[in-house]
Design a protein that fits this description.
Blueprint: H1 4-15, H2 28-32, E1 38-40, H3 53-63, E2 71-73, H4 80-90, E3 99-101, H5 109-119, E4 127-129, H6 137-149, E5 156-158, H7 165-175, E6 182-184, H8 191-204
Length: 207
C-alpha cells in the first residue's frame, strides 16, 4: 500500500545498505551488480498485488545502475505514475532489453510518454506487450515515432484491449514495418471503418 514517494525513500536507503539482498521479492542486489538476465514479477492472487508503486520505484532506481536485463515482465502489476516515470529512466541503460511486458499495469497515454525516452535506447527490443491498459491515440503517436526510428527490430506488438479507436488504428497502421510479424489490436473500439482505414495504411506502407 505504499506510494511512489515511499519507494524513493526506500531506494535511497537501500543503496547504502549492503546487507539487504531483496525487498518484497525484488532482487535489488542482483540488479545492481548486473547478475540477473530477466525479471518476472507476478501479482498475488490472494491480495490485490504484492508489488505496487513503491516497489516499482525501487525497481526502477536499481535498474538505473544495471545494464544487462534482457527480459522484464511486469504483467498485472500496479505500477503507478511514479513507477512508470522511474522505470522510464531505469530502462535507458538496458540497451540489451529484448522483451518487455507491461500488460495490465494500468498504463495510460501519459505513462507511455514517461517510458518512451527509455524505449528510445532499446534498439534490440523484439517483443512489446501493452495489452489491457488505457492507451489512446496519443500513445500511438509516440509508438509510431519509436517504431519508425528506433524499434526497427520489433517482432511482436500487443496492444489489445485499449482505447485506440479509429484514429489510433490509423496511426498504428502507419507505424507497422517489415520486421513485425505478430500484431494484436483486438478490442480497441476500431469498428469496420477503422479496420478498413488500418488496412489501407498497411497497403500504403508497403505491408
Amino acid at each position: 500500500g505504499l506510494d511512489g514517494a515511499c519507494g524513493s525513500i526506500l531506494a535511497a536507503a537501500l543503496v547504502s545498505h549492503s546487507q539487504i539482498q531483496t525487498i518484497c521479492g525484488l532482487p535489488v542486489r542482483e540488479i545492481q551488480s548486473n547478475r540477473i538476465g530477466g525479471i518476472i514479477l507476478k501479482p498475488n492472487k490472494n491480495t490485490n498485488a504484492p508489488f505496487g508503486p513503491a516497489e516499482m520505484v525501487v525497481l526502477g532506481s536499481f535498474m538505473i545502475d544495471g545494464c544487462c536485463i534482457a527480459k522484464l515482465d511486469l504483467k498485472g502489476i500496479d505500477i503507478g505514475p511514479e513507477g512508470f516515470f522511474t522505470l522510464g529512466y531505469g530502462i535507458r541503460t538496458h540497451t540489451c532489453l529484448t522483451h518487455l511486458n507491461l500488460s495490465r499495469t494500468g498504463m495510460r497515454s501519459e505513462n507511455f510518454d514517461d517510458i518512451a525516452p527509455g524505449l528510445h535506447q532499446c534498439t534490440h527490443l523484439s517483443e512489446l506487450h501493452l495489452g489491457t491498459n488505457f492507451l489512446e491515440v496519443q500513445a500511438m503517436h509516440a509508438l509510431e515515432k519509436l517504431m519508425s526510428h528506433r524499434l526497427r527490430f520489433l517482432r511482436v506488438l500487443d496492444v489489445q484491449n485499449n482505447l485506440l479507436g479509429q484514429s489510433g488504428a490509423i496511426v498504428l497502421g502507419k507505424a507497422v514495418h517489415d520486421h513485425l510479424t505478430d500484431l494484436d489490436i483486438s478490442n480497441n473500439q476500431i469498428g469496420a471503418q477503422g479496420c478498413e482505414n488500418f488496412l489501407r495504411c498497411l497497403t500504403l506502407n508497403g505491408n
